[in-house]
Amino acid sequence: MGFFSRRSDQYDKDGTERLRNASPQDTELIRSLLAHGADPNAPKKDGQSAPLIMAASAGCVATMDTLIQHGADLNVFSGTKWHESPLLAAIYENQLDAVKYLIQHGANIDGSLRSGSPLNVAFLTKNIAMLECLLDHGADPNKKLMGILSPARACESVLRCMKHDIRNMPKEGCAKCADRLLLIRMLSLLRQHGGRPIVAGSSKGTGLLDAYVDLIAHVEKWEQRGEKWAEELGNMTYNDPLIRSMMEWMIKGGLGEIRVPVPDDSIVDMPDLSGKGFERIETTHGDRSRKYSAATDSYKYQLR
């Protein structure tokens, strides 16, 4: 009896290995392997994701159905970046039918701390039809996972141009500026499904203009904070003009052209922004402020 048990275990292992390597389009082979004991939740190995994630990535609904009938976990976490779960993989690969199938069979539409947010992946792919599908099927437009931005802020962070001011016309030839209308359409769609604006009370409507007004309000609020921080730091450093200039640059540099005045009466030497001095400043402050990081990235872009 032990002899047959070992053979069964070995066959199970071999079948699972064959399942990992099987093409998601080969539904009949996968069905046969599962019927003979292959593991439908075979974990990630050698860069190969779990079988259901592979099938979702390829949009093979028939194979997905076969795997689920044999016990595959709809929310298995065993994939590569942006493919950590079946739903995320289907969204990232723009497989709309696979996304609908997974949602209808109970996939976690709001994601988790471990897998991340499906809405955020939809922003990355710039697929407004996918975003609309998720929202129509009940995705929470205000769901904020710990350590992750709200959907509206996540959408803004992915699509808003940090080099050119959103209050001006889009810059011709700028790929990020070209996404402006898409950004506003996505934000409007979130609001139409009950999403809150980025800045509370900025506007009550759900149209494109309301979403655009909300973005402008966020930019202006950002600038006001920068001026306040500059003033507070200036007071702590005897109102030194260089430090005030740098604080203002940290905020406004991400919104438009960067122009840092060089004060003659500063109590400290002006650092070399294009060399070692610049790197020293970035190391000191970069981890403390996302706004500063955006400004430094914009400045580096101009140095190329």
From TrEMBL:
Residues 1-20 have a biased composition (Basic and acidic residues). SMART domains: ANK (SM00248). It comes from the Eukaryota. Signal peptide: none annotated. ANK repeats lie at residues 47-79, 82-114. Residues 1-23 are annotated as: Disordered. Pfam families: Ank, Ank_2. Keywords: ANK repeat. This is Ankyrin. It comes from Rhypophila decipiens.
